[in-house]
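Q: Could you write out the predicted structure for this multi-component system? I'm mainly interested in how the pieces pack against one another.
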Amino acid sequence: GKDPNPIGQTEGSKWQKPRLSRKSLMKCCLVKWIIASTTQQGPGKDSSDSDLELSMVRHQPEGLEQLQAQTQFTRKELQSLYRGFKNECPSGLVDEETFKTIYSQFFPQGDATTYAHFLFNAFDMDRNGSIRFEDFVLGLSVLLRGSVTEKLRWAFNLYDINKDGYITKEEMLAIMTSIYDMMGRCTLPSVRDDSPFEHVEKFFQKMDRNRDGVVTIDEFIETCQKDESIMASMQLFENVI
Amino acid sequence: MAAGVAAWLPFARAAAIGWMPVANLPMPVAPTEKSKRQDELIILNVSGRRFQTWRNTLDRYPDTLLGSSEKEFFYNEETKEYFFDRDPDVFRSVLNFYRTGKLHYPRYECISSYDEELAFFGIVPEIIGDCCYEEYKDRKRENAERLMDDQEDNKDAKLPNMTFRETMWRAFENPHTSTMALVFYYVTGFFIAVSVITNVVETVPCGSAPNQKEVPCGERYTVAFFCMDTACVMIFTVEYLMRLFAAPSRYRFMRSVMSIIDVVAILPYYIGLVMTDNEDVSGAFVTLRVFRVFRIFKFSRHSQGLRILGYTLKSCASELGFLLFSLTMAIIIFATVMFYAEKGSSSSKFTSIPASFWYTIVTMTTLGYGDMVPKTIAGKIFGSICSLSGVLVIALPVPVIVSNFSRIYHQNQRADKRRAQKKARLARIRISKTGSSNAFLHSKRNGLFNEALELTSSTEEEQRLSKSTSLLESQHHHLLHCLEKTTVSNHEFVDEQYYQQSYLDAGLQNYPSRSPSLSSQDGMTGTCCTRRSKKHHTPLPNASAATHMQPLTHTHTHQQGLQELSTIHIQPLSTSRSSLNMRVDEPAPLNCQSSQITTAIISIPTPPVTTPEGDAHLPAGPAHQNVVKVSAL
């Protein structure tokens, strides 16, 4: 992924709360570069400056208060999360490749890239190809501090690959295959080629009430709320942060 | 897992909610954090420089000192910080490792100090990042080579009990070990020089008889030269045979380069001896004489520079090979071109392509003898191209060879310098060690003297004698005192001279002793010999009063080594036999496992304080101490 060092930081020494105001936008390197490349530059312009800024696209997150308002995390938790996030992605953005690499490290035996791809799309709400800190923290807020319904909604969003509101068998099969891929080869009993398919069938049997071949959000939530073990497992990761 | 990945673990766990709706089986219970701590800043005070970091940062690597509970040992309650008495500069790299997950090696840092710091903080050096790994490994290798060099020097130290053969071999390899070897070295060197000069002078035309053409000296003074040659060859043969005898592995010796040179140098003479009568082969015999010039290579044993040159050429074999190959290519090309260019001209010397080789070589090496010159215009053009390219082709590999030579030569210089410095360093260390042991003995003597003076109780002298020794010294001396007192019969330390003296003076019966081994390895035990001998309970035959010393001693062979405090036996005396017996009967459970001890009773009159060599035998006057010191070792 990107690994720049903040050479191009043209800000002053004092750290100011980042806002997406016009002023800060103007200072954003990307904007500067676009402007610089389209206008004629005088001989007095510092060209080395723009050269450096070319190499780095940076994103500053919204302010702490705004994020506090949008999510269920406390201020301290947000600070801690941001520190971890920024440590890993100094540029403030996670692109898909980096995301896949990071997620794959947790599942060394199998191939987690496909599932990571789906996960990435679930987090990247504005579909711009990179996860910003806001996306990250909003997603986490739902997963860790949200109500069960919100979590279920999130899960539905994950399974619905094309985000059309319906989970089809193909989508579910893709998700299931990717989950089984994460297991890898060395399992007992070993993963058969039709295991995902079987699993999808079971899932649809359970979830698809009206047998129309797709699962809608309401069917999904309704079925899950009736299932005890699913409800219990939803509470499993309450204390992660 | 890498540091960064640990930071993403909460995220991965949260994302696992995506599996829940599709799961068939119930999930296992999640591990709970027992003490849910908020992330806090901790202060690390390293020699006064304060570093602050989050506790979580340090917890990323739980198998290091800072990441585990081991750091609690360094916690300072009053200041609420962790204090480490280490180098703050290196600590910077260590802490950055926790922060970024990459360990860097700063170039200006000494490799051993860096390694020590890493060992202290429990970090394995193998995780140094790629950016710094090469530098680290290079420095480490240099250090290891240096250590190996030092060890090799130690190997030169004379081992005891070397057979005659081994001594001879060592003498041959290192002429500096003994005078004989040095003499031998110079003698052979002289004869090599004489032999070479003889060979040269043999061919000089020495004055001629009238009406005869000039005759080389060799033919004029045949006998003289023959005698000289014989003498040299005798010496060389003897030397070769001696080396062959002394070599640890004769087969390997015979295969080595130097021995082959030796053989080639002396063989022509013997072949000549055998073949003098046969006229047909005498022509071949003459050519054999050429090989006598190989004797000059025998000088390489005497000159280190020559050896380095040879080694350099060997190590630059690939560059030399390349040089040769490219020259050959160029020669062939240019020779062909020149031949065809000069074919047209009438009286051309370029009769064939091989004939043009000579011209090409002479031109490319910029010699230009002028015996073959191109006459046509095309020939001249190509000739000039040839000479220009020759310069380039030769100039390219030469700097590589030169730099190799320079590197090896300087390495050798450094090794020699280190050896010399090491000798000086060891001498200094030895002096300081004997100084410290002398200090102890001195203070002890003064102490005893103090006791002796107690009677007179002259405060002035006491004050004078109780010099101000530092706290460390006094504690050290106290420790040695305790050791002395521990030994049942109160063995005491004395210095070497005193010990030697008393031993010499004793000179009495020596009990059969088995291997006296010197345990000078043990730091402070100080017993210079450990012995196992039978225990004699029977009263010692000459336990009559005074002057019998029955040392069980020690063939004290270790001359130089009283680096630690030597021991001794001694001390006065006991007059009455009963007390002797008393002591004798006591078993002596010493610290060492020596199961048996023999007792020796030595009586020395008092006070042994002033002069160590003193009055070892007079049973004068009343003794202060009725202590029988048993030298049981």
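A: Regarding packing and overall arrangement: The longest helix of chain B spans residues 398-454.
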